[in-house]
Amino acid sequence: MSGFDVQQFRSQFTFFQLQPDWVYLDNAATMHKPKAVTDAVQRFYQQQNSNVHRGAHQLSQRATTEFEQARDIVASFINAKHRHEIIFTSGATAALNQIAFGLMHTVLQPGDRILLTQLEHHANIVPWQLHCQRHGIHIDVVPLNSSLQLDLAAYQQLLLQKPKVVSFSHVSNVLGHIQPVQQMVAMAKAAGAITVIDGAQGVVYQQPDMQQLDCDFYVFSGHKIYGPTGTGVLYGKTALLEQLTPLLAGGEMIEQVSFVNTTFNKLPFRLEAGTPNIAGVIGLGAALQWIQQYNNNDLIQHKSLLLKAFFSGLAQIKGVDILSMPVHNAGIVALNVDSEHPSDVAAMLDQQQVAVRSGQHCAMPLFSYLARPGAVRCAFAAYNTLDDVNRCLLALEQAVEILTA
Amino acid sequence: MTLEQLLADTKPALQEIQTRDLADIQQASDWQAKYRILMQLGKKLPPMPEKMKQQEWLVKGCESRAWLMHYHDKSTDKHYFILDSEARIVKGLMAIMLCLVNGMSSAELAKFDLCHKFDQLNLKPYLSQSRGNGLTAMAEKIKACCPAA
Ligand SMILES: Cc1ncc(COP(=O)(O)O)c(C=O)c1O
Question: Which family does it belong to (chain B) (predicted)?
Answer without folding.
Answer: Belongs to the SufE family.
